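Chapter summary example.
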Amino acid sequence: MSMAGQAGRLIGTGLAPVLPLWLRLRARQGKEIPERLGERRGLGAARPPGPLLWLHAASVGESLSLIPLLVALAEKSPGLHLLLTTGTVTAASLLRQRLPAALAGRVIHRFVPLDVPRWAAAFLDGWRPDAAVFVESELWPNLTAALARRGIPAALVNARLSPRSARLWRWAPGLAREMLARFRLVVAQSEDDAARLRALGAREAQFWGQLKAAAAPPPADPAELARLRALVGTRPVFLAASTHAGEETAALEAHRLIRARLPDLLTVIAPRHPQRGDQVAALIAPLPFSRRSEGGLPGPEQEVYLVDTLGEMGLFFRLAGVALIGATLVPKGGHNPLEPAQLGCPMLLGPHTDHVRETAEALAAAGGALRVVDSATLAEAALTVLTDSGRAQAMTRAAADVAADAAHLPGRLATAILDMMPPATGTMPVPRGE
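The structure predicted for these 434 residues follows.
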């Protein structure tokens, strides 16, 4: 083990006595579920008989991107049980809403244990997975080391490594090589990510496609969609979707500019984190607006509708005539642009699309998205789409073609993961040097 790996083990062990206090504080803040805190220490195993695959996704985006892979795994291996861990309560809540009914009895959810050696050991000894799959950038030294000691094969899928993270990992090259060498399969979400992973030690890292692109579009309640459409009527709708601080200000300035041409415009602002609702409401306050979290509706007297609720983007992508994709006007890397592509909503992308670069470039090149850089270009582009139905239809057709290209990926990944799993033996590999 590298010196950095040994340091990680010592740090995890040293922090263990104070981490329960930290977890209880998070629970008081609503970031943990109090009665499930034991899961963060690796407790609460209830392993079903038969083969078990453990999949881990940190948060909302990663978790939802796994759903098509879960479906493909279940179809290809009818006897396989799926243990899915997340690091956030929000991800767990959305998974309950989005998992297909056919998977409900085969997917077990737990919160991932913190990266403490004995907690990782308790988790693995309790669940005894036959293989493990990590999503995006979930690289935990003690968890991956515990897997390796038990001889449990692991894969890293939809792997992402930003240029900044790659530079940071160069300060601990031995640890990076150790962790990446523990994965038998590394499939990156872009060619650039694959190259950076290979440079750090994942010599066989490959790019097959973007897993998020294969996810089913976010759902919408038909009755609620019909109600909102009746309320909105023929008004043009501009959506600022999954916004971050700074983007709401740009959207409101764009709203002011667009209304000079379209006085009945309705602007919908949906912050990525609903807990920012009060902050965003203060920005909107000079304008007539209503707030969804308080039961408000987009009536004819409202200029802006604040959607500070969770899990409703499917509803508003279907309602909008054009949408700004959040995290692209500020340097956050960009959220998934293929959800509006699947739902026929023309989209606008800011300059900051590092996390979805290849998808964003493909959409822009195909004519499926327009690029903007500030509130003025945002207003100009939104106005173009809202007033030119032919342009809007051409954009949605081009974006749908780009989204359709990713449909094959879950099946290919499922086959590679199942091939990695050992034959069922009924025994658990013995950990080496725990």
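To summarize the output: The chain has 19 helices and 14 strands.
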